[in-house]
Amino acid sequence: MRTAALTTPEAELYYEVRGSGPPLLLVNGGDGDAAMFGPLADLMAQDFTVVTYDLRGNSRSRLTGPPREQWIEEHGEDARLLLEAVAAGEPAYVFGTSYGGMIGMALLARHPGRVRALVAHEPFVIELLPDAGEWHALFQEVCELHEREGVDAAMRPFTAAIGVEAPPAPSGNLPAAVREMLARIRGNLGTCLSYELRSFVRFRPDAGALRAARFAVAVGGEGPETLLHRTARAVAELAGTGITELPGGHVGFLTHAAPFAGALRGLFATLEGREGLEGLED
Fold first, then answer.
1. CB-neighbour burial class of residue 63 (10 A; exposed 0-12, middle 13-18, buried 19+)
2. Neighbour count for residue 190 (Cβ, 10 Å)
3. pTM (predicted TM-score)
4. Are 209 and 239 in contact (CB under 8 A)?
């Protein structure tokens, strides 16, 4: 694995590259960073040039300007610039989870030639829900609670409402690399609540772009029904496609990395209309 930094407007992105073969970009959700994709990236690097990165303003991707409200479309441009730097213009497979799926959709809409196929895993597209206004009001309350009382107070009603657990604390009995990752993620929670949540959930996908592309919506096939299952169904309806269940829950790419990698390979193959990508079968 090699690491590097890429300068983009108002940010310097930390990224990692593994393996060789066609490019595959893995895009995080709101509080994650490249390390959360480490196990999956290692497996996919057997067949792909895998690119992972920290979203701007999160973990090791520092802002070069003052903090401000962020927008999904800006992050889509970061993804484009990263692919231009690493993939030399070759269209990439893209997998994005939660906000990352939305970033992938923004990239696809503006730069369809950069995307060979896109899988959006539990995309957090609140705008497509009939009760979107109620969710926007709740997230505004959560962000105001964060401003008054801090991250922990805000995360309790947030995670209870969406049905997804908060990341664990970086306890001392964990390996050092895991503790460091969890510490970074805890810092990212504040960034998300201050500058991302309210604006990110205003994103509305381009239906025409999704329908014209090799595009799939996926959810975790294990665990309870969550808000992100609802938003995934809304995206699938907009795109005129079905929903694929992948191993594990919301972070199945981390907790079930090996079966998740096999299923993701198969899903990309299906999107390309083939039984298997040459040389990529398990």
1. middle
2. 14
3. 0.95
4. no
261 touches 44 (CB < 8 A) = yes
Backbone φ and ψ of 12, nearest 5°: -125, 110
pLDDT single digits (tens) 156-165: 999 999 999 8
State the SS3 of 1-17: CEEEEEEECCEEEEEEE
Residue-wise pLDDT for 31-66, tens only, equals 889 999 999 999 999 999 999 999 999 999 999 999
Q: For residue 282, give every residue at least 6 positions away whose Cβ sits within 8 Å of its Cβ, in sequence order, or none.
A: 261, 262, 265
